[in-house]
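Q&A FORM
Asked by: J.P.
Topic: structure of Radical SAM protein

PROVIDED:
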Amino acid sequence: MRTPTPAERATFVPWSEVSYEPPYDIEADWVLMSTCAYRCAYCFWDVDALGAKISTPATVDRLASFFEGTGLVWLLHLTGGEPFMYPGFLRLCQSLTRRHYISINTNADSPRIRAFTETVDPEHVDFVHCGVHEEQRALKSGRGRFIENVMLFKNAGFPVFASVVMDPRLFPTFGEMWQEYADRGVTLIPKALRGPYEGRTYPRDYTDDQRRLFLAYARRAADHYATQFAARKEPPSVNPFMDGPLFLHDRPDYRGVMCGAGHRFVRIMPDAAIYRCGPADLIGNVAEGWFERREDPSVCVDKECPYFCEKYKIT
Ligand code: SF4
Ligand code: SF4
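REPLIED BY: S.T.
REPLY: Here is the structure written out as tokens.
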């Protein structure tokens, strides 16, 4: 196997090698809603879910105050759908970041991003992950707004990085596309497609040539992001630089391993229900104000987002 370059080592640190004690007690993958203005062919939400009217389970103030009541410091990964479309999203972020930490997964298309960068404390934002979603971007606002918004985050001191889901249709002209973004100041990290797509299953059905190109551009992106990632005390929970080494051949299955989910990690769904991880194990509700945190790690029985599995599995 090829020895990783220093830049690759800086951008992909296995969680088993991270000894940092973070300033938060527990992390939540908070799916605020399924709604999004984009219609990416590879999205795990179906068209009805993407077009769903957003219904909030409680006021933003009530949602935010729940976390105070737990007596814990939280790292809340805000995702969707497109989280910037959530009613009161800026107020939610402003409230949460007074004591807690947030990270955001966004398509960076929202006009609210400028106000976010002007009113939210970057010290309490662990990262902003901007997904380019090229096909939909071409149909919507084009590249300009994405680049402008990534730059707004960057210039305001937010730890921002950008990725591109490697839709098989992108490969033939990917080099030109990658360079055009890079020339305008945004370096894209290739991210593996996961799940069924046009009769194939990814990442398993990437060809060898596609994998080679993926890794070549992941290496170029690592050169760009090495200093930024090396300055972090721990990797971002959702780190597209993990995809090359870990997720480019198959989607791993963690069932049967011990995991800190329920104690160090939970998932919050759009109706505010808090799950240990998958949908069968309800342990709280943000809107109803209750949370039965698990005392100890337990065996994984779910197949969810592998970034969190890598972080919270106990080896
Ligand atoms: S931007 Fe994200 S949430 Fe929206 S359709 Fe695309 S993959 Fe789905
Ligand atoms: S290993 Fe992954 S899927 Fe399993 S409980 Fe932990 S976080 Fe959830």
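FOLLOW-UP: The chain has a mean pLDDT of 96.
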